[in-house]
Amino acid sequence: LAGSARFKAIITGKGGHGAVPHAAIDPVVAASSAVLSLQQLVARETDPLQSAVVSVTFIKGGEAFNVIPESVTLGGTFRSMTTEGLSYLMRRIKEVIEGQALVGRCTATVDFMEEELRPYPATVNDVGVYAHAKAVAEEMLGDTNMRLCPQVMAAEDFGFYAQKFPAAFFSVGVRTSEEITHVHTPHLVVGEDALPVGAALHAAVAIEFLNKHVAS
């Protein structure tokens, strides 16, 4: 799983009437330029053989049809499979937003909200712990009910544990029908029959690990 962080930026100009834009300093145009320029961080600055994501997920400005707002707020998430990649994106996101604001005669503040929510490190499975968990799951559930998940840009705070101790991250399927629904949607229905299976698997992984290592 990827390391992830978030950002929120406020681009401030000078509000005015939409009929006389030359008398205002338009933060909407500056914010639009910033959103487009941020796409270059992945498309033109990231090695194609590496994984990175920069997604602007919200943008908020004025509410009236004929008024140029004084400020625009935008924000989103950025992700990388490495700590170095995450740090690079953080630095460049700030530079790009502030730079595009300056081009539009605006000012910008960029907040990565690190005090509210620390950036998640990438979750990297320990080879030995992964092999142990896989063997226990295959014995308990059968190898046909096990599969290796591809690398994805989702993120988990479990990565903090994996930084301190050898760890392995696995998921338990909870689909209830052939139709696939996703998290962060109102359509997700969790198959609760999977809950005791997941609990038993977690317990078995821990017990078997202790049996092997305490005895030795």
Explain what this protein looks like in three dimensions:
This protein has 216 residues and is α+β, with helices and mostly antiparallel strands. The chain folds into 2 domains: 3-111, Alpha-Beta Plaits; 127-215, DNA polymerase, domain 1 (Orthogonal Bundle). Helix content is 38%, strand content 18%. It is built from 6 helices and 6 strands, in the order ββααβββαβααα. It has helices at 27-38, 40-43, 83-103, 127-141, 158-164, 194-215, and strands spanning 3-12, 16-17, 52-60, 67-68, 71-80, 107-111. The strands form 2 sheets. Strands 3-5-1-6 form a 4-stranded antiparallel β-sheet, with helices on one face. It has a two-stranded antiparallel ribbon with strand order 2-4. α1 (27-38) runs antiparallel to α3 and α4 (127-141) crosses α6. Residues 3-100 form the Peptidase M20 dimerisation domain.
Quick structural overview:
The chain is an alpha+beta fold.
Mean pLDDT: 94
Query: In total, how many beta strands?
Result: 6
Largest sheet, in brief, is: 4 strands, antiparallel
Number of domains: 2
CATH topology of the largest domain: Alpha-Beta Plaits
Order of helices and strands: EEHHEEEHEHHH
CATH architecture of the largest domain: 2-Layer Sandwich
Cα radius of gyration in angstroms: 23 Å
Defining key terms:
alpha+beta, DNA polymerase, domain 1, 6 strands, Alpha-Beta Plaits, single chain, four-stranded antiparallel beta sheet, 38% helix, 216 residues, two-stranded antiparallel ribbon, elongated, 2 domains, hydrolase
